[in-house]
Specification:
Length: 223
């Protein structure tokens, strides 16, 4: 056995695989073999690979802000534009921020929040003083039994020309969450031959308002 072969055999003993790989790679020019052995040894020792370590070191923690507010409430973050809150959490710089929530019925509330590095903070009505909600509970049917697909929209109250253009989802049991303020409620039947319902409501914080509606072709009965 030559001296080189004897040296190679000794270096390939257990737990000396890394050193053996380096020397044999230089002698035999075996591409890729060294990297595979180094990664294998790191796995045995519970150490991260070079790729994982580099990615983890270069990745900054993402900080996000989310909103859980009823339709019709707009928000402004710091000096940004006023608009409808995003439907999903969005990235934001970690630290202190001034958030304003507004509704066209006249409600407005401004708070200061601190979002930690890597955190996702969700702001709801409970975080904004003066922006409480109430529940409208509807039971809707058609006078002649037609199948309905009800919709509910809100707008400004006490204005004959006002358009109710803010659509609200009708949940299980006919429940709709509204901002606690005076506003117009318009219920649509979703059927071409059945009429709807309109009412200007004074909505108090925490209230549960119940309406039983029997929708007819031209008129509506409310109980």
């Amino acid at each position: 056995m030559s001296r080189v072969e004897s040296l190679s055999t000794r270096l390939l003993r257990p737990w000396r695989g890394v050193h053996a790989c380096v020397m044999l790679s230089a002698a035999a020019s075996v591409a890729g073999g060294c990297n595979e052995m180094v990664e294998s040894m790191r796995e045995r020792l519970g150490q991260p690979s070079d790729g994982v370590g580099a990615a983890a070191a270069g990745e900054a923690e993402v900080t996000r802000l989310a909103f859980d507010l009823v339709p019709g409430v707009s928000v402004q973050v710091d000096d940004g534009e006023v608009g409808a809150p995003p439907t999903e959490a969005t990235e934001i710089v970690a630290g202190e921020h001034m958030i304003t929530a507004r509704h066209r019925c006249g409600r407005e509330s401004t708070i200061t929040v601190v979002v930690g590095e890597g955190d996702t903070k969700t702001l709801g009505h409970g975080d904004f003083p003066g922006m409480a909600t109430a529940t409208l509970r509807l039971q809707i049917s058609a006078l002649h039994g037609q199948p309905l697909a009800p919709t509910l929209r809100t707008g400004l109250a006490d204005d004959g020309a006002a358009v109710a253009d803010i659509e609200h989802p009708i949940g299980e049991g006919g429940e709709v969450t509204l901002l606690a303020c005076r506003q117009r409620v318009v219920v649509g039947s979703g059927h071409p031959d059945v009429g709807g319902y309109r009412e200007d409501l004074d909505v108090d914080a925490g209230a549960v308002i119940e309406r039983t509606l029997v929708l007819a072709p031209d008129a509506v009965s409310a109980k």
